[in-house]
Write a structure and sequence with these properties.
40% of the residues lie in helices and 18% in strands. It is globular and about 55 Å long. The protein is built from 9 helices and 11 strands. The chain has 259 residues and is an alpha/beta fold. The protein has helices at residues 11-22, 53-57, 74-91, 111-125, 139-149, 168-181, 198-208, 222-229, 245-253, and strands spanning 2-6, 26-31, 41-44, 62-65, 96-102, 130-135, 155-157, 162-163, 187-190, 196-197, 215-217. Helix 1 crosses helix 6 (168-181) and helix 3 (74-91) packs parallel to helix 4 (111-125). It binds NADP nicotinamide-adenine-dinucleotide phosphate.
């Protein structure tokens, strides 16, 4: 089966590509800036304009849609870009489109999540047979968040926010299995093995990095804070991944640690 992967240069894309190859799929990877990689066919396509999409979809049987632009032009790329992709996939006769979304897009009031939810709806209302996987946050994303939250010294955050980080490689395994299974016309969820409070995540991160940065507790106000503290980013769905936040920290920092 020839599979087109959007967002192939991203964190999840880099986990997905070798698994698809090993699983016997013929892979075509796209991003705006194609890579020099002899093991995969790379093409350029831009979801914000539609440039390159028709060529990228030519001869493709399934699409794994990972591309996203959380920080800028999100409506253009994630919502309208997903619509462009669905229309082009229909014209190319694609038999299955798998879209990756985020646990909590339907209950956590963040602008990015509203766009992801709208993109899910574009996929589900479209003519191409589909499946959606909502994943929780990758540990690397949680680390980026913690670095940002500690750039002025202490780690600033709401201690009671709940997260359930999931290994991107395990999400990639799940996506490959979904492609093999065919369209489900359903939204599935996939999360990591542990629900963590923000203060516990910070504590483990500080220890792994041999850092003494204190946590400066700041309660996130309003509906956003309530959603985040009541587990809006988490799920009880099983099976979960197996790799924990502690596993990620051990792999990243080992026994050496750094500030
Ligand atoms: N990160 C998380 O913790 C997390 C958790 C759950 C779900 N997800 C979802 O998983 C998916 C992948 O996340 P990720 O962390 O791997 O993302 P990422 O590392 O930020 O990668 C984003 C990808 O989107 C591509 N892209 C951005 N704008 C584009 C455009 N205009 N046209 C075509 N491609 C474009 C980028 O490629 P170029 O810049 O090379 O074009 C890149 O390959 C996203 O849909 C995200 O919402 C992420």
């Amino acid at each position: 089966m020839r599979v087109l992967v959007t967002g192939a240069s991203g964190r999840l894309g880099r986990e997905v590509l070798p698994r698809l190859r090993d699983g016997g799929f013929t892979v075509r990877a796209v991003s705006r800036h194609p890579r020099d990689d002899s093991t995969v066919e790379w093409l350029a396509a831009d979801l914000a304009t539609g440039d390159g999409l028709a060529a990228a979809l030519d001869g493709v049987e399934a699409v794994l849609h990972l591309a996203s632009s959380p920080a800028r032009r999100t409506h253009e790329v994630d919502v309208l870009g997903t619509r462009r992709l669905v229309v082009a996939a229909d014209q190319a006769g694609v038999a299955h489109l798998v879209y990756v979304s985020i646990v909590g897009v339907d209950r956590v009031p963040l602008g990015y999540y509203r766009h992801k939810l709208a993109a899910e709806q574009v996929v589900a209302a479209g003519p191409v047979p589909w499946s959606v996987l909502r994943a929780t946050q990758f540990p690397e994303f949680l680390e980026e968040l913690l670095r940002g939250a500690s750039r002025f010294g202490p780690v600033i955050g709401d201690p009671a926010v709940l997260a359930q980080p999931v290994d991107a490689g395990e999400v990639a395994d799940r996506l490959v299995a979904m492609l093999a299974a065919g369209p489900s016309y359903a939204i599935a969820e996939f999360a990591g093995p542990q629900v963590l409070r923000f203060d516990a995540a910070v504590w483990a991160w500080r220890n792994a990095r041999r850092s003494r940065r204190p946590l400066l507790p700041v309660r996130i106000p309003g509906g956003l804070g309530r959603a985040l503290r009541s587990g809006g980013l988490t799920t009880t769905v099983t099976p979960t991944g197996t790799r924990t936040w502690a596993d990620h920290l051990a792999d990243t920092y080992g026994g050496i640690g750094r500030r």
